[in-house]
C-alpha cells in the first residue's frame, strides 16, 4: 500500500472537509470515480486481480445496494468521492458479512480507511452483523497488520479470510444519541461467499 509522501509523518493530521455518506443504489458513477483514483497496485490489492478497466456489469453489481444486505459507505472529500467501504451479508449466516474497503491513492494514509471501517461497522452492527470476513491478500502486509491490530483472526473454515468482530470497531457515539437499527432477517441456507 502506498501512503505518505517521502518525509511525511504517519499519522498525518486529520482531513478537513471529509464526510461519509451512504451510496445510493445504482450510483455507478461514484463507484467508477473511486476505482479510477486507485493505482494499478491498489486495484490489485483490492480486487486481487489486475483490472485496468471496470466492466459495466461489475459496476452495477458494486452499486447494487440493498438495505440490510449490501451497504456501501462513501468518503467524500470536499464533495469528491475518495473511498468506499462495503459489507455484504453471507447468505445463510445473518451474523456474518464480507467487508472490503478502498481509498484513492492520493489521500491514502490520512485516516479515511479507518473512518470508513467505523461507519461500516456501525451500520453492520445495527443490521445484526456480528463478524466481518475480510479477504486480504497475503502480500498486503500493511492492511493485514491493521486488521490484526483491530482484532482479526484467521477464519478456521476459510484460511484465505480474516474474521473481525464488528462491535469493537464501532466508534463511540456521542452521549444521549442512539443509532437506529435496521431490522433484517436473511433466510438460512448453506454458507455461500458473496461476491464483492
Ligand atoms: C487499505 C486502505 C483502504 C486503507 O485506507 P487509508 O485511508 O489509507 O487508511 P488509514 O489512513 O485510515 O489507515 C488505516 C490503518 O492502516 C495502517 N497504516 C496506513 N498507512 C500506514 C503507514 N504509512 N504506516 C503504518 N501504518 C499505516 C494503520 O494501521 C492505520 O490504522 P491506524 O491509523 O488506526 O493505526 C487503502 O490503503 C487502500 O485502498 N488500499 C488498496 C486496497 C486494499 O488493500 N484494500 C483492502 C483489502 S479489501
Notable characteristics:
single chain, 196 residues, alpha+beta, Aminopeptidase, seven-stranded mixed beta sheet, 5 helices, 24% helix, globular, disordered N terminus, binds coenzyme A
List the helices and strands and how they pair.
Blueprint: E1 18-22, H1 28-36, H2 40-47, H3 56-62, E2 70-77, E3 80-90, E4 93-103, H4 112-126, E5 131-134, H5 141-149, E6 153-155, E7 158-165
Parallel strand pairs: 4-5
Antiparallel strand pairs: 1-2, 2-3, 3-4, 5-7, 6-7
Bound molecules: coenzyme A (COA).
The site of coenzyme A (COA) has 25 residues, from helix 2, strand 4, helix 4 and helix 5.
* Overall pLDDT: 85
CATH architecture of one domain: 3-Layer(aba) Sandwich
State the CATH superfamily name of one domain. Answer: Gcn5-related N-acetyltransferase (GNAT)
Could you describe the largest sheet, including whether it forms a barrel? 7 strands, mixed
Instruction: Give a count of the beta strands, DSSP E runs of length 2 or more.
Output: 7
Molecular shape: globular
Strand order of the largest sheet: 1-2-3-4-5-7-6
Instruction: Output the number of helix runs.
Output: 5
Helix content: 10-25%
Q: Ranges with pLDDT <50 over ≥5 residues?
A: 1-8, 175-190
Rg over C-alpha atoms, rounded to the nearest angstrom:
16 Å
Coarse structural class: alpha+beta
Q: Distance N terminus to C terminus?
A: 20 Å
- H/E order of the elements? EHHHEEEHEHEE
What ligand species are in this complex?
A: coenzyme A
Fraction in beta strands: 25-35%
CATH class of one domain: Alpha Beta
Amino acid at each position: 500500500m502506498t501512503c505518505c509522501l517521502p518525509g511525511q509523518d504517519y499519522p498525518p493530521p486529520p482531513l478537513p472537509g471529509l464526510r461519509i455518506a451512504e451510496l445510493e443504489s445504482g450510483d455507478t458513477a461514484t463507484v467508477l470515480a473511486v476505482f479510477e483514483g486507485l493505482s494499478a497496485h491498489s486495484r490489485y490489492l483490492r480486487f486481487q486481480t489486475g483490472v485496468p478497466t471496470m466492466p459495466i456489469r461489475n459496476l452495477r453489481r458494486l452499486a447494487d445496494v440493498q438495505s440490510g444486505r449490501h451497504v456501501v459507505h462513501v468518503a467524500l472529500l470536499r464533495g469528491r468521492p475518495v473511498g468506499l467501504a462495503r459489507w455484504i451479508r453471507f447468505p445463510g449466516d445473518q451474523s456474518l458479512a464480507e467487508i472490503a474497503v478502498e481509498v484513492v491513492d492520493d489521500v491514502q494514509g490520512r485516516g479515511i480507511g479507518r473512518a470508513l471501517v467505523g461507519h461500516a461497522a456501525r451500520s453492520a452492527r445495527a443490521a445484526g452483523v456480528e463478524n466481518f470476513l475480510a479477504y486480504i491478500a497475503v502480500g498486503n502486509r500493511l492492511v493485514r497488520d491493521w486488521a490484526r491490530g483491530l482484532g482479526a483472526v484467521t477464519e478456521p473454515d476459510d484460511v484465505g479470510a480474516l474474521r473481525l468482530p464488528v462491535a469493537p470497531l464501532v466508534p463511540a457515539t456521542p452521549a444521549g444519541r442512539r443509532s437506529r437499527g435496521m431490522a433484517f432477517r436473511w433466510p438460512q441456507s448453506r454458507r455461500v461467499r458473496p461476491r464483492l
